[in-house]
Structures are given as structure tokens and as C-alpha cells.
């Protein structure tokens, strides 16, 4: 169980937002924190502290007037920590190489491979062929319906018809190196782990999985470790003191180091 740091960029600034509040119309989101620091400064910190495998997420669509500023922040972070960060947000087989050349270890993809409410296996094949499966992270961020969790796209605004199951993850694993899963219903709320989702992810064994959403205290993190048996990595955004939250960054690092030592 590793801590995967994050750098979320919206309207050209590093932010933490309430996940379900993001709207492309007007480039709006309910903000938990807006940083005065650039993305490269966070990337340099993660590099100094030896925290690989974090993610840089562009939260503006290409049509946004803020997209270029957001993209430049992302590229600056990748250059500050070459090989140490993954990049996501509007990635396709056409532009993925640009982010890898800038220093990303992986590209993170959702909407490109889940379009019109369906899985596009042809798109997964093109992406894996373009950059290599070993450089691909499939984002299976999801929201709950009565009968289960469904993958959401377009910066978590659009439900697909694709239900997240263990069997689905096993099939998609042939096209990627890792999974990233935001529990969107609890993302940015620091209201506790989505326990049912965490247990579902812990049952997957073919690829590394990183969970995001709802971890708001060290007690929540301990509960997450118990639920997953340490088999799932995690990220914390709004609840971390780097982003104005109550969890001390240094305490979090020590917890993870101790957890790994105890295994």
C-alpha cells in the first residue's frame, strides 16, 4: 500500500475540488483549495521525498479558454519529476506521446476508451499500440447506482452504461499497466472511504490499483488499509495539509513507511 501523490489542475491553477461538482460549462467547480504554488513546485517536493507514481490531472477540456494554461502547468510538473508522475485529462492515442516525452511515466485515460456510454476496445488497442501497454493507466472512476458502480467520463459528468466489476477489470488489464479509480460520490468530501468500492478493488490481482476518494483522517486511512489488506494504493487530496486539510503530509509518509515495514 503506497501513497500516490496528486496534482489536480483547473483553470491553470493547482486545486482540490469536490469531484461531483465539476462542470465544463463556465469552467466551474466547487473548490476546496486553490494553491498559490505552481504544479512544478509540488512535483519537486514529491521527487525530493521519493514518492513516485502520483498523478497530474488536467481538469479542463481542450475547448476551454483555460486549457492551455492548465496544460502548461501539467507539462511543467512532468519536467520537474521525469519518470515520477502519470498524466491524465484529454489523453488519446494521438497526444499521449507528448506527455510521455515531457516526462510522464504513464498516461491516464478514461473518455477516449469509454465513449457513447460503451467500452471502445478498438481505442484501447490503438492506445496500447501507440505507447505500449506498460505506459497506460485506465481510469475506472465511478459513481454508485442501485445495482452497482458505473464508470463516469468527461471529468466525471457523464454516466456510461459500463458497470465496474472484477471481471471487467480482468479483461481491461490486458491493455494497461495500472488502474486509477476515483470514488466520485465521496471525492473531495473527506467524509470517509467508499468501503464497498474499496473492497471490490482489493479483490483485483492482475494489475496495481490506486483508489481516491473520501479519506479524510488517519483513522480513515487505517480503515482503508484494513479493508483492502494493503493491496490497494491510495491518494489523498483535499484532506492533506499541503492542500489546506487536516492530515499532516509528514505523518502520512511515516504511516506508509511503517505499514510497509510491518508487512
Search tags:
globular; 8 helices; 10-stranded mixed β-sheet; 3-stranded antiparallel β-sheet; 263 residues; 24% strand; alpha/beta; 15 strands; TIM Barrel
Provide a descriptive summary of the structure in words.
The chain has one domain: Aldolase class I (TIM Barrel, Alpha-Beta Barrel), CATH 3.20.20.70. The chain has eight helices and 15 strands. The strands form three sheets. Strands 3-2-1-4-5-6-9-13-14-15 form a ten-stranded mixed β-sheet. It is globular.
Helices and strands in order:
Elements: E1 6-10, E2 13-17, E3 31-34, H1 39-48, E4 54-58, H2 67-80, E5 85-88, H3 96-102, E6 106-109, E7 114-115, E8 118-119, H4 121-131, E9 136-139, E10 142-145, E11 148-153, E12 158-163, H5 166-172, E13 178-182, H6 195-202, E14 209-212, H7 218-228, E15 233-235, H8 249-262
Parallel strand pairs: 1-4, 4-5, 5-6, 6-9, 9-13, 13-14, 14-15
Antiparallel strand pairs: 1-2, 2-3, 7-8, 10-11, 11-12
Helix pairs in contact: 1-2
Q: Class by helix and strand content?
A: alpha/beta
Q: How much of the sequence is in beta strands?
A: 15-25%
What is the CATH domain class?
Answer: Alpha Beta
CATH topology, by name, is TIM Barrel
Q: How would you characterize the largest beta sheet? A: 10 strands, mixed
Stretches where pLDDT is under 50 for at least 5 consecutive residues are none
- Distance from first to last alpha carbon: 10 Å
CATH superfamily: Aldolase class I
Q: What characteristic shape results from the CA principal axes? A: globular
Order of helices and strands: EEEHEHEHEEEHEEEEHEHEHEH
With strands numbered from the N-terminus, the spatial order across the biggest sheet is 3-2-1-4-5-6-9-13-14-15
Helix content: 25-40%
**How many discrete structural domains?**
1
What is the averaged pLDDT score? 91
Number of helices: 8
Amino acid at each position: 500500500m503506497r501513497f500516490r501523490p496528486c496534482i489536480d489542475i483547473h483553470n491553470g491553477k493547482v486545486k482540490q475540488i469536490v469531484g461531483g461538482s465539476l462542470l465544463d460549462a463556465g469552467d466551474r467547480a466547487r473548490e476546496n483549495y486553490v494553491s498559490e504554488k505552481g504544479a512544478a513546485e509540488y512535483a519537486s517536493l514529491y521527487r525530493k521525498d521519493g514518492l513516485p507514481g502520483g498523478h497530474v490531472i488536467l481538469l479542463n477540456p481542450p475547448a476551454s479558454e483555460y486549457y492551455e494554461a492548465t496544460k502548461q502547468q501539467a507539462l511543467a510538473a512532468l519536467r520537474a519529476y521525469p519518470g515520477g508522475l502519470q498524466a491524465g485529462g484529454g489523453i488519446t492515442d494521438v497526444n499521449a506521446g507528448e506527455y510521455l516525452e515531457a516526462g510522464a511515466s504513464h498516461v491516464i485515460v478514461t473518455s477516449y476508451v469509454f465513449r457513447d456510454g460503451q467500452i471502445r476496445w478498438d481505442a484501447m488497442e490503438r492506445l496500447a499500440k501507440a505507447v505500449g501497454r506498460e505506459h497506460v493507466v485506465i481510469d475506472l472512476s465511478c459513481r454508485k447506482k442501485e445495482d452497482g458502480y458505473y464508470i463516469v467520463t468527461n471529468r466525471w459528468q457523464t454516466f456510461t452504461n459500463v458497470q465496474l466489476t472484477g471481471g471487467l477489470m480482468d479483461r481491461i488489464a490486458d491493455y494497461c499497466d495500472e488502474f486509477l479509480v476515483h470514488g466520485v460520490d465521496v471525492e473531495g468530501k473527506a467524509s470517509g472511504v467508499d468501503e464497498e468500492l474499496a473492497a471490490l478493488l482489493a479483490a483485483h490481482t492482475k494489475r496495481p490499483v490506486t483508489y481516491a476518494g473520501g479519506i479524510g483522517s488517519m483513522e480513515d486511512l487505517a480503515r482503508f488499509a484494513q479493508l483492502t489488506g494493503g493491496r490497494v494504493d491510495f491518494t489523498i487530496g483535499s484532506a492533506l495539509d499541503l492542500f489546506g486539510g487536516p492530515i499532516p503530509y509528514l505523518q502520512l509518509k511515516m504511516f506508509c513507511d511503517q505499514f510497509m515495514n510491518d508487512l
